[in-house]
Structures are given as C-alpha cells and as structure tokens.
Amino acid sequence: MTSPGQGFHVTAVTLLTNTSRTDESRYGSTITPKAFTSAFASNAPPSEIRTHFTSQDDRILVFEHGLPQLAPFLGRAFRGADGLAQYLGIVSECLSFEDMRFGGDGDGDGDGDGDGGGYVVDAEARTVAVRGAARFTWRSTGQSWDEMFVYVLAFDGECKVERR
Length: 164
What we know:
This protein is α+β, with helices and mostly antiparallel strands. It has one domain: Nuclear Transport Factor 2, Chain: A (Roll), CATH 3.10.450. The protein has helices at about 20-25, 30-40, 45-50, 80-95; strands at about 10, 60-65, 75-80, 95-100, 120, 125-140, 145-155, 160. Strands 4, 5, 6, 7 and 8 form a 5-stranded antiparallel β-sheet that branches. It is globular, with a radius of gyration of 15 Å. Mean pLDDT is about 80; it is low at about 1-25 and about 105-115.
C-alpha cells in the first residue's frame, strides 16, 4: 500500500448536538490523527488503514482532489469499506513513496521545531487538517517528484475517520 498524493481528502458527517466536554478534549488532541497519518507513512497494510475508519460502511468516503485524466484515483468518490480498499489498491498500483512525514515529523510543518505542529484541530467540528510531504514515484514510468499535500480528516464519536 502506498500513501495518497495530491490533496487526499477524507471527511465526515457528524451532528454535533450532545458533544460533551470530554469529547471536546478528546478531539482537541492530535493522538488519533497522528496514529492515522503514521499508518500511511509507515506503509501499513490496507487492513490496518481500515481500522482507523468508522465501522459504519455508509459513512466512509475517500476523495482525492485532482483531474481524473491524470490518475485513476483522482477526482472520484470511493464509498464504503469496499471503496476504501479499491482506492488503496489503485493508489498502490500506481504510486510508491518514500520519506513521508506529517505535521512536526521532520519538516512537515516547515518550522523544524519538532513540536508536532502542522495539525490543525477543530474540536467542535471534530475535524483535523494536516500537511504532509513525501517523494512519490509513478510505478509505470519511474518518474519521481517531491510533493506537499493536505489531509482533511473528520471523526465520529468513536474517534474514527468518517465522511463529512
């Protein structure tokens, strides 16, 4: 499995009525999104990536922004657990990556202070945005490039990635 490139966007729909103070402090932490981005950066198998998503199949949506004519995983919605598996499969067929980092990992937040910055948390909306960087290689041509990208992740009441 490889990591998504250009503007990978995973989002969620969650009504925020009944959000408790405990929920807010839990979503104010970057532990959950860091575990998710770490799984991508470490080239975790799709089965591990799946554990970071909601168990509600109809609440899973993966959408990577970009022109569909540039890559078969860009500009289209992958829905449910099967869609997630299909997305991860297509990306891994097309791309490999190295030196993936997020937020304060390496220079992911650009300030080099190693404080874990670069994760922007909206606790009320249960949404986290994080900037990442990696060197990607298109498998069929061997062409490589350095890329910065953004993940936008939204979480359900169990701190699992869910669609918005």
